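User:
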Amino acid sequence: RAAGYKVYRSKTKSGKYKLVKTINKASGLTFTESMPKGSKVWYYKVCAFEKPKKGKRLSGNYSSAVKVKAK
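Assistant: Predicted structure:
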């Protein structure tokens, strides 16, 4: 079971993704943010993680990229 999720953002679908939010399951599964300046389109990916075991946090695969357009 996932202990939480990491949300990553990039300006391009195949570009470098930057971690923008870590969501612990206890805090809920909702993520919202104001669109960052400098672009009207952003791409997001999500990765689940488990509770640390022996000092190591285990992460799953990244989701497919999702395109988000500013209104």
